[in-house]
Amino acid sequence: MLAAPAALDAFQGQAQEQKWMAAAEALKPQLRRTPVTPVSLVRMVADPGTFLRWRVEPTAPAAEVSKQLMRGGDAVTLDFGRHLVGYLTFTITGEGRGIDAPTRLKLTFGEVPAEVAEPFDPYTGTLSRAWLQDEVINIDVLPATIEMPRRYAFRFLKIETVATSPNFAVRLSGIRAGAVTSAGNAPAELPPGTPELLRRIDRVSVATLRDCMQTVFEDGPKRDRRLWIGDMRLQALTNYATFRNFDLVKRCLYLFAAFPREDGLVAACEFEEPQPHRGHEYIIDYAALYAAAVVDYAEASNDWATAVELWPVVRRQMEILSGYVGKDGIFAAPANAWVFIDWSQNLDKTAAMHGVFLYSLRYAQQLAEKAGAHEEAAQYGKLMAALTSAARANFRDEKQRVFVSGPKRQVSFASQAWMTLAGVASDDEAMAALRTVASMQDAVKPGAPYLYHYMVDAMMRVGMKQDARALIERYWGGMVRAGADTFWEVYDPENPHLSPYGNTLVVSYCHAWSCTPAYFLRSGKLL
Length: 527
Known about the structure:
Helix content: 25-40%
Shape: globular
Number of helices: 15
Number of strands: 15
Strand content: 15-25%
């Protein structure tokens, strides 16, 4: 276990945390608002042959909506032509013998067709029903221009006339959205000659990041709408290759620094409203990756002064986490601790978590040297050597040419990726392991784009450029071919009904950790 320097006595001082909080608030961006109008009226047609279960058929230009008189039971569905995050405005007028009752409307917003085509109730998901984007509003006086106060993430909008009275009907017009983001102008397209599928993947990646860039890097603008370390780190990497909004990354790093747990462990997520505060979740691998996020930022922005300012936070993560390394040199998180790694339910995470900590220590060592903390840097070096030796002794299966994890010696994509990224395997060993695991029928596959990112990263680290490109084309390209205009929280090509929450309607279809193909494609390593 690493020794805690005396300077840490002041680590949790309120003055320092308030300073970081003030710095974060000073960096809070003004959101850019772009008007977006619907492009067409559509109908949703059930189609089991499509991955998303529904086919969208245009029926008329969007302007035709103003020609329709709507009574109780009538409905229209509009397609805005792109995913957006923002606010809805429309005008409603009444026509008939007399406006003698309120008008009741139901509005349903959808990122994908199923959200406006399938009933939300009875709701069977494990997350709150309140995340589903539907509203019932009563309008007492007509005509009226309605500005919906809540922010939505959507492409499709269904408006139902629940009730008027027999004496009048209503007409809708001026339907428009104000799309908001803190991203700047869209980056240039990929170079001429880039295959069209990769160009489409890049555009969807950039759109995903754009819509998740709000006053923090949100994980999903429809559901959760908060800042998570794991998502933020991947968003920041993609941002460096696209929008290059360094201040937003800096703001997020400060927010995590400002609200640690009582012992100094950074929270896995942060909320902004009603005032910034930490979430109640603590994820061991996310805490470790805070070090990587800080150093990534410094390398991309050349702002090492901020990274050095945050060195005490990084140092504290390493101190806490080093306490989980046993006498055998293996990282073992407490039984009640949350280790994420991936959404895969059957994954043994021992080897992967060991790899994440070792990987993060390398970043912490780099920052320690920059901060002049040479003693800590040397300690990290000794610990990394011990962790590497223990990993090879405990996780390496020479016969199968892969890394295994847990008492059942499970083989998973996660173990191969993190042993590679941690530097436990030589390049030749890593290439063999990554290719072998892909051919094993019983290997535990990734459950979400988050781990697929680290698979691609691992391939790139050992020169498997063609394999990495093929994986991006197959996995993220699969979402594009399935109709994605922003990338999804979870995707299994063989299971369109996959949801960690028991209901696909509450899945986030614009999700931060899925945006990274643009990072790989624009890094100069793949094209």
